[in-house]
Design a protein that fits this description.
globular, five-stranded mixed beta sheet, 10 helices, 12 strands
Amino acid sequence: MLKSFKMKILKKYISIIIVTYNSREHIEACINSINKQKYPENYIVEIVIVENLSTDGTYDFIREKFPSLKIVKNSENNGYGNGNNLGAKNANGEYLVIINPDTIVEEGWLEKLIEPLTENKKLITTPKVLIYDGSKINACGLIIHFTGLGFTRGFRSEKKLFSEIEYVNGIFGCCFAIKKEDFKYLGGFDENIFMYGEDVDLSYRAHLNGFKIQFIPSAIVKHDYDLIVPAEKIYHLEKGRYLILKKYMTAKDLILLLPSLIMAEALAFGY
């Protein structure tokens, strides 16, 4: 009886949340890369899919190809943050891993992200994210600027660089891990931000509440990412940035930072 009780205490329940929207092209490779891993015996891992009303057959494909997965079909598409919040509400795990559908993961990625969370309070972990072919870095966390902009740290650098565990000032929303109780404590993603910038906003709140964000270079995720910024993306990026400035800056802050903010506006407008 005592042995059984100890084994129960040692188990780690983990929910991997994937929000899909027209993700038919990538989702099979993503799920397969997660499922083929040999996780520690004390890990109990579930995948929670939140389907945000795809029009390319993603939902039916997942139901047919992966019938054992938990799929939550959203009633309407209210954005990436809303989808992940819904996934967290339907997750059974004490640890959450948020990950994009256009990713594949490498061996050992999950335990490298989870173990620091078991040993530390108020911590979020974020992996080394490479571009899809694994040749270059996509992001090693974010660099967050006081103008509300978030920059992918290490973008296009050689993959061997950024090899040390260190604290960073922003999570990269493509993938990160957090205790479920901490995600709830922070209020989850701000659903006023439809997409782009929700990771910057969550990073702001994390730091304001005494959390640290740890970059884990040995946790490797590959992301199908190109630096393409169409008009729609610029709109959402700028809208998210304005919401962030409104939330966290006082009138005095905005006046003091006005020269830098004007420069940021000029750069964004010029782009």
